[in-house]
Amino acid sequence: MRDHSRNDGDRQPTRVTLFLFATGIENSYPMIQNGRVRRDQMEECGHYRQWQRDFELLGDLNIRFLRYGPPLHKTFLGPGRYDWEFADLTFAWLKERDVVPIVDLCHFGVPDWIGDFQNPDFPTLFAEYARAFAHRFPWVQFYTPVNEMFICAQFSAAFGWWNEQLKTDRAFVTALKHMAKANVLAMYAILEERPDAIFIQSESTEYFHADNPKAIKSAEFYNARRFLSLDLNYGYPVNSHMHEYLLDNGMTREEYHFFLDNTLRHHCIMGNDFYHSNEHRVRADGGIRPAGEVFGYDEITRQYHDRYGLPVMHTETNFDQGHEGDEAVDWLWKQWANVLRVRNNRVPIVGFTWYSLTDQIDWDIALREQRGRVNPRGLYDLDRNIRPVGEAFKKLLSQWREVLPTQSVCLFVPVMLPSEYDEPVAARRREGWRRYLRHELKTKPELRS
Fold it and tell me: 207 is in which domain, residue-wise?
């Protein structure tokens, strides 16, 4: 819903009230096989070759918001060294068409020269990259600096599937604290370039169910651990059990207090992702197995909102089309019903995303092996033909886009379209935020440029 009013010749910034309908380009790029193979989904799914066609599909769907980011491993070549060629092409197209990107800067992998998420230099190096990106593309307002920190740390350092391929609590905590610090430092760096930036943190929302009484203790541990990435990111004090767990596995008191002392939650929307695989059953021996959908998105999202008190956006979901051809359509309907339920329970939810625009490759095995299996869960297939769920998503948007804004005049996301970046009122708003941030940084010498 756009505000086209004028005031003394100034065009008012667009306000998208209440709801951001979005999709995304799958851009994971973790390493497997002990660092010998990189699973670059933008390559495997054809985006490098067909990026213009992919962007044109957004117009077919009437979608203006896109989760998207340049491949970190191809763009960040070394300290102070960048290859912006592909980003310049793609982001110029988005800007010209007034598409609002939610820019994903790190998606499950790092450049070869950094190594992996055990590298203690990663946070400061990544913040340098985030600052350089924001300086080059100052019209970009929305960011997800590090995507799904909990999942990335778990798959890389607890399950042994990606990147460092380790399987210890110490490796998990190390990866997680490095990603969380990278996320925080990147937010500060971006704000110095774009002081009215908004951060939509895409993170997996999980729940662990005890199979029997002997599994209760393990389930309680997992249900506390699931919050760690957001606890650190938002400066939320962990419970005593998690505090001991962090300290026992390599986090220092100084590292922990960095997160408590440097929160930017007032710039944040809590993006949460929910799939059929997000709920788990815990056995008596502590092992876990899939539970399917038990509580669902509504209940688990309310748990996360009760903890952090931030506006929410459903930032990822999908489902395979299935043998009957309508399984993904049914899942879309179920997720949307849950979104409305969250909203009706007075949780401020501001957006919904089907991820991703096209089918994916080997995500049914979390990219662990190169099988080349197409997962039919996109709005379009890899030939860029629309799937039934794409038609259903398009219809959902047309039916609900104009209804939701009329139900609230108080809650809005202050979206500024790329074309409005140079408007006088937009410049005044950025200057107001810039003065505020300068005041804040006076008390945080460790974060000054």
Answer: 6-447
